[in-house]
Amino acid sequence: MMARPVWTGIVSFGLVSLPIALYTATDSHTIRFHQLQRGTADRIRNKRINERTGDEVDLGEIVKGFDTGSEYVLVEPGELDDIAPGRSKALEVSGFVDLDTVDPIFFDKTYYLGPRGEQYGKVYALLQRALAESNKAGIATFVMRGREYLVALKAEDDLLTLHTLHWADEIRDPHTEVPDLPSKAEPTAAEVKMAHQLIDALTTDWDPEAFHDTFQEKVKALIKAKAAGEAVARAEPAAQPTGVVDLMEALRASVERARSPKDTGEKASASQSTGRGKKPAAKKRTGTSGGSLRSLTKAELYEKATKAAVKGRSSMTHDQLADALAKAR
After folding, report:
1. In this predicted model, what pLDDT tens digit does every residue of 36-80 receive, in sequence order?
2. CA distance 119 to 126
3. What are the backbone dihedrals phi and psi of residue 101, each rounded to the nearest 5 degrees, phi first?
4. What pTM value is reported for the model?
5. 222 within 8 A of 232, measured Cβ to Cβ
6. Angle CA 268–272–276, to nearest 5
7. Rg over CA atoms, the chain
8. 218-246 in b/e burial notation, b at 16+ Cβ within 10 A?
9. 127, 87 contact by CB (below 8 A)
10. What is the 3-state secondary structure (H, E, C) of the chain?
């Protein structure tokens, strides 16, 4: 089933116009819960209630009202369209800017843009290719659902995308919003060098497929476990703040930890090629020692503890699970 557009209109640049349709580009996989009264299966529902009479009000009887302080100025839905005739169907590009000059903080939501009909394919392809080769974005405004948007029209792969932008006065000043920003605190040259080493050790290629919503997975696991009447593993406590005195040592340990998987892999390969060090490698793979168990994540430890029927595992910390599994074996 093809998606339905959320907006249709005409995008124009100069004397060139292109009928387009706007499609939602992203989905949310947030798990939705219903509100229930505790101890029952009764749903809690929101109603539109007249606060003076207590009566429920039909949606068609509701109008917008702006509070001036002494009274409300009422605005009918149709009046918002009347003050900007045609604006809800036109997306006029006022100019093109280099993409690199648009600060990421301005970007809000992304939409896919498609031509409204095969006969407009050439105009669509022309605009897409020109934007891609010039690395520019068309800046425009348009009205959707009673609200005006500032947008950036850009090329991505083989299609056009539309990104809604925040207005300039919607961007908050960090110096007034964020307390305790460093002013006189300066890291030492050694700390900066070590921080660069840590960043280099953790540098990798950007692969969005490598990341997934682990919290939602834990919520699903929680629901599944509670439905089956099973115990749920507790999460590890949050990391403690790094003190100023311990900063250099924390950086050094972080660099060693980030490099160790790569170094260990290289050493293992070398040992296998020379025929030496086979027994230690086999011991590490079996994961039976306490040290090897501690290198596993808590989720992996909990899974092993479940198979080993370790009692009280749901309330154990990471280290307690490792110790219990070592004793069980």
Report:
1. 999 999 999 999 999 999 999 998 898 889 999 989 999 886 776
2. 13
3. -90, -10
4. 0.62
5. yes
6. 95
7. 29
8. eeeeeeeeeeeeeeebeeeeeeeeeeeee
9. no
10. CCCCCCEEEEEEECCEEEEEEEEECCCCCCCCCCCECCCCCCECCCCCECCCCCCECCHHHCCEEEECCCCEEEECHHHHHHCCCCHHHEEEEEEEEEHHHCCHHHEEEEEEEEECCHHHHHHHHHHHHHHHHHCEEEEEEEEECCEEEEEEEEEECCEEEEEEECCHHHCCCHHHHCCCCCCCCCCCHHHHHHHHHHHHHHCCCCCHHHCCCHHHHHHHHHHHHHHCCCCCCCCCCCCCCCCCCCHHHHHHHHHHHHHHHHHHHHHHHHHHHHCCCHHHHHHHHHCCCHHHHHCCCHHHHHHHHHHCCCCCHHHCCHHHHHHHHHHHC
Q: Comparing C-alpha atoms, which of 236, 226, 230 is closest to residue 299? A: 236
pLDDT, tens only, 287-305: 445 557 877 777 677 778 7
Amino acid at 185: A
Q: Label residues 283-313 b or e (16+ Cβ within 10 Å = b).
A: eeeebeeeeebeebebbebbebbeeeebeeb
- Strands 136-144 and 147-156, sheet pairing: antiparallel
As a whole number, the mean pLDDT across the chain is 82
Domains and CATH numbers, the chain: 7-25+82-170 (2.40.290.10), 188-277 (no CATH), 287-329 (no CATH)
Which residue(s) pair with 8 in the sheet? Answer: 21
Residue 140: Cβ within 10 Å count: 21
Please tell me the distance from the alpha carbon of residue 83 to that of residue 104, in angstroms, as a whole number.
Answer: 32
- Res. 272: pLDDT tops 50: no
Backbone angles phi, psi at 73, to 5 degrees: -95, 120
Residue with tokens 């907006």: 7
Q: What's the token pair of residue 213?
A: 């919503």
What are the tokens at 178? 């964020």
Distance in angstroms (rounded) separating the CA atoms of residues 57 and 48: 6
Tell me how far apart the terminal alpha carbons of the chain are, to the nearest angstrom.
54
Residue holding tokens 């929680």? 222
